[in-house]
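I hope you will forgive my troubling you with a question about protein structure. Could you please explain, in whatever detail you think fit, how the structure tokens follow from the sequence? Thank you for your consideration; the sequence and its tokens are set out here.
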Amino acid sequence: MEHNLAVGLDIGTTKIVAMIGRKNEYGKVEILGIGKSKSLGVHRGVVNNITQTIQSIQQAVQEAEVAADMKIMGVTVGIAGQHIRSLQHSDYITRSNSETVIDDNDIDRLINQVHKLVMLPGEEIIHVLPQEYKVDGQAEIKEPIGMYGGRLEANFHVVVGQVSSIRNIGRCVQSAGLNLEGITLEPLASANAVLSQEEKEAGVALIDIGGGTTDLAIFRDGIIRHTAVIPFGGNVITEDIKEGCSIIEKQAELLKIKFGSAWPGENKDNEIVSIPGLRGREPKEITLKNLSKIIHARVVEIVEQVYVEIKNYGHEEQKKKLIAGIVLTGGGSQLKHLKQLVEYITGMDTRIGYPNEHLAGDSDEDITSPLYATAVGLVLDGLKRQERKQIEQQHQKEIEKVENPEEEIKEKPVKERRSFLDKLTERVKDFLDNAE
């Protein structure tokens, strides 16, 4: 595969998307091909049928290969699912020599210490994200490197997930004949695709409403502050319509997309949809008012759960206010009047997020749909990962040329510190290789 190409693979509950993208000369991303298939074998973001998931992945990948006219080798995969949780943690190290300045190695030591936290059985730390540092009790330091001090402490946002679920995803990707190049947390990927830097600075909550789960990522001062995965999504709404109106799932989904609204007041009492009966039965008549009441009840529940998480982060404190409000993305964000409902429940400014933040201007309208936010984010992540590799290789070559040990010491930690998910990817790969 070419150097500046990356493939994102979004393994969702309702659909699996493979997306091939490359950077153009202006630093924007062009999407070359996209393939999607119905996701069978994934429930609430967790794989529960390996064989079906492998088939769905292969189908999506083939479609993308045909569209872009190239062979896909490696992919960047997103993980979400109901097993993801996050916690806040503070830790510190005491430096043996406070006469020297703090460097990357000290920060590595501190982060590695967090990795030793005791988790529940079967859980593993996926992400350790430093929030702010303290040096000798001096608080609110964003970047402690180069400062003097004996005690270095930090607050961390730690994201935890079930190892088995992550390994299962790795297994599906490998069995579909693909290389696992990287693993990324889906809320982070979607955030990269739809949020601007200004929003991340001002404070923003990204809500990605998928089929099986709703992902939340909160940013403030450009740093991710809180993540959560709520085990409800668009499918639960469809399920409610199916039960409430006694119709089959396919019809419920169509009703939701075509006539659904999150705000019951919008529909008149006399607006009726007629649905063909099964196999010679009488057609069913459903009032749109009833339909939106069913949808409204469930959407309110999802939004309120997300709002609880936003409050847990501390949104009500002056210092933690989210000035840019809420951005909704994902397939579920396309529900009519959802924006108004979210604003009504939370009292925060809301917009629908389209993943065109980093895409080339002439991108197809389909691609910039909120449906593809995660896939676009995974492509961006894959491209970033490649750039880092190239830079590292470049450094390696320069180091070999110069054979200057000083430089080598300086360059190495940068690689280490960035790549906790890379380490996780390596571990998953090793595990899969040894398990065969």
